Amino acid sequence: MTHPNFSPVALTIPWVNFDVYWYGIIFAFGIFLAIQCYISMLSQDGIPQQSILSHTNYSIIVLIFFTLMGARLIEAIFYSPDLLLSLTHFLNLRAGGLASHGAVLGFLLAMSLIPPPTPLSSLQLLDRLFLCVLPLLSLIRVANFINQEIIGKTTAASWAMIFPAYDLQARHPVMLYEAFLYALLFGFLWFLNSRLHFIKKEQATLPEGVLGLSTLSLALCIRIFCETYKLEQSQWMLPFQHDLAFTMGQLLSLLILVPVLLCICALSLPCLRNSDHKNP
Question: What DSSP designation does 21 have?
């Protein structure tokens, strides 16, 4: 099977000769879906519509800015150090190069700057936001597939794909693996939350923050798994790619995953202790 070799340019605006990329369109659509999911969850919490709109408008600006800057900075430091040679080059996001691990760090930093809408806490806000971001992650990988980015290792599997923009060898369509798993995780957690009320106000069955951090940890596990089928992307790691048993993506995922798991344990411990006291 051969990749359709789509053009990365979806359309060109003629009077200004401005190219609109599929990546940008899909990214914008992913943000739209995430916002709609978030608004839906806040509405279920009984928060007034006016409060939701004012909170969401501010949150979008802060989250997008810090997420993009975090993604670009980590891309430059760990994957493409040549981006640091020029500020113009660094800020030219249209040229590509965004690291999802940096997006996570930027997202968490933005969270600390966003006041949650009354009566939610910051941890309750985190629960809702991380779940709503999963569709965006899935769609970004679809955009990577269209652009023939994040190439997989060679394979003889029947579903292997040739990416002519890279070479003529059959490879894992690893972007689609990741897109499918993020979408599956979102559907699974959304369904469970709607049935078991993990975080619904007054009926929450999970401690505050646990669903959000669990969502993040599962997304990181998906990333670690899919990295086993990817070619190394970091310029730092390329000289050692045949000597190391891990990729830069796996290393960064583990560095985030370990403290996230510790936070989940810390948040869950008081509930477990209370449960022990109630059931001697």
Answer: E
